[in-house]
Amino acid sequence: MELISQKSKKIMEECKERAIDAGLSFSSETLEYIVTNRDMIRLSPKVMIPTLYDYWVNDVEVLKEEGRYKLFPSNPYETVINSRPPISFYNDNNPDWLNIMIFYHVLAHIDFFQNNIMFENTWNDDFVGMALADKRLIESLRADHGRWVDYCIEFGRSIDNIIGYFKTLPKRNLKPQEEPPEKINFFINVFLQEIENATTIDIMRFIERYNMLVAEHKEKAENIFFSEIKSTFPEFEAKYEQYDKNLIKDADILEFIINYSPFLNKKENEWIKSVLIVIRNTSLYFSPQIRTKILNEGWASYWHNKLFIGDPRIKGYESAYAKINAGVTSLNRVGLNPYAIGLRLFEYIKELGDKGKMSYDFQKLLNAEERQEFDNKVFKGDETIFKVREIFSDFNFINTFVEQDFIEKHDLFVVGKRLNQERGTYEYYVKSRKAEDYKNMLIDSLYHPPYIVLDKDKTGDNQIYIKHIFEEKQLYKPYINDTLVAIGFLWGGEVKLETTEIFAERDNEGLVKGYRYEKVLYSYKDRKISKTKI
Question: What would the pLDDT profile of 124-160 be if each residue is shown by its tens digit?
Fold first, then answer.
């Protein structure tokens, strides 16, 4: 591994100037390294952070990637680290013209890292330096405690997805006294969404009504609001009274264990807290990346395409670029390519902004021809995509802009799979061309850790009691036992887990005729796990 040549660095600096002129915003200092294909393979299991602490799973991943490379040799082009300064790695056999395209792609990633609010907690951190300090800490603990350090890493990693990532984000322009009352919070976030399954439009309508009452009546707004909804939701008051206020709704299980575990608070076990803090901080660092994969790759693909095509240095390499770009951004008919979906969504949003299609006048049109020909020529596309880059995550991105016009524009559809009994083979077919179905397919592919809450009244020195809020997806059963063992070890006592499981109901021929839901309670005590119906 070595720094790129002065010639390549000069190319990179020229790319920076063009990117800034186009509107991208990023720090002036960056580091670029040249690596081999095998270097890339060894970096990948650590998610491209060379200084990340050592862990046995990384070694397994290296062996797996090396085996895959022997079977399917490939040329990974680049990777970039969100650090201070940003660090990027490039394959040692990339020609100069290809590096120009890749430099633009990387600069768009850096712009995204440094401007999207999901990454706000990383804007001032040098994670590479922090990871190196963590690595040295882990190594020093291994010298003192041996394999127990790796056991604790294993236990911590089993629950490092149950962290309160969104709780850590700053609440922009919201003063403490402006926090909505608990009853309003329950009505909007629990009653409407979880009990009534209200649409987004209905939820926004209630929020707008409440805000209007606050502006007009101030402290009387809450009473007026709930007197108005009695006729629509007569059962609300009863539901609110039944609401379990003992649940810690913004529970960060890993943080809770670090702070309150009786076992970890013993003097001889305090070193384990240091290990868990490293794991939690690392998980928090990667949380915004996993929640913005489509958005981030789409943004980078949009800009490398736009800036490279407008760069005079492309001359003579148009065909080679078209081939490589198509391989990166082509739409898959089966499966999901985040580069392709993200790129086309940004192009679609740019068109909406330029033609004024985000206005109410356009949204109320139902005629397909009128919608297609609509053009107010407001040319606000660039302003719109930069705003989307700033404030959206993958979920908002997909939920807002995957609409029927977008589906029809790119001839997208949901693919189904069925058994052809005559031929004895499986076949793929077009299951749906509806935007709602395609949107749901994309949303189902996103990262969505389980929603876990703590019952503080049932949690004590000898027991930790957690509840899984069922969202039509059950916990992955093969992981439950090991995770309970991990929590039990770190808490130093019994573990209770409430969850809901789905069971298939079959007919006499063994075919699935429906599903039933059962609430169950898992218990871990004295190294034994049991399960009972609730």
Answer: 878 888 888 899 999 999 999 999 999 999 999 999 9
Distance, in Å, from the CA atom of 57 to the CA atom of 334, rounded to the nearest integer, reads: 30
Give the end of a domain, one of 444, 469, 485.
Answer: 444
DSSP per residue over 34-52, as a string?
A: EE-HHHHHHHGGGTT-TTS
213 and 340 together in one domain: no
Q: How far apart are the first and last CA of the chain?
A: 57
Is-contact 167 250, C-beta < 8 A?
Answer: yes
pTM: 0.83
Structure tokens given for 195 = 């009990």
Residues 142 and 261 in one domain: yes
Query: At residue 170, what is the residue type?
Result: P
Report the pLDDT value the prediction gives residue 247, as an integer from 0 to 100. 60
At position 92, the amino acid (one-letter code) is D
DSSP letter string, 139-206: HHHHHHHTTHHHHHHHHHHTTTT-S-HHHHS--TT--GGGSPPHHHHIIIIIIIIIIS---HHHHHHH
pLDDT in tens, 184-208: 888 887 788 777 878 778 888 888 8
| Most confident residue range from 310-314, 350-354, 453-457 | 350-354
Q: Is 94 exposed, middle or buried (0-12, 13-18, 19+ CB in 10 A)?
A: middle
Task: Give the contacts of 163 (CB within 8 A, at least 6 positions apart).
Answer: 252, 253, 254, 255, 280, 283, 284, 287
291, 396 contact by CB (below 8 A): no
What distance separates the 2 farthest-apart alpha carbons in the chain?
73
Domain identity same for 413 and 460: no
- What's the domain range around 303? 2-116+292-327
User: How many angstroms from the chain centroid is the CA of residue 440?
Assistant: 16
DSSP for 254-267 reads: HHHHHHH-TTTTSG
Contact 311, 100 (CB under 8 A): yes
Continuous segment of H or E residues that includes residue 418: strand 414-420
pLDDT above 60: residue 47: no
> Is it the case that residue 45 has pLDDT exceeding 60?
no
Cα gap 217→13, rounded to integer Å: 57
- The DSSP bridge partners found for residue 512 are 506
- Distance, CA of 313 to CA of 214 (rounded, Å): 58
Distances (CA, A) of 178 to 175, 218, 424: 5, 12, 63
Residue 9 CB contacts under 8 Å (≥ 6 apart), including other chains: 3, 32
Residue 288 reports pLDDT greater than 60: yes
Contact yes or no for 1/22 (Cβ under 8 A): no
Domain count, the chain: 5
CA angle 276, 282, 283 (to 5 degrees): 90
Write down which residue in 444, 468, 489 finishes a domain: 444
**Residue 496, domain member (yes or no):** yes
- Write down the pLDDT at residue 420: 84
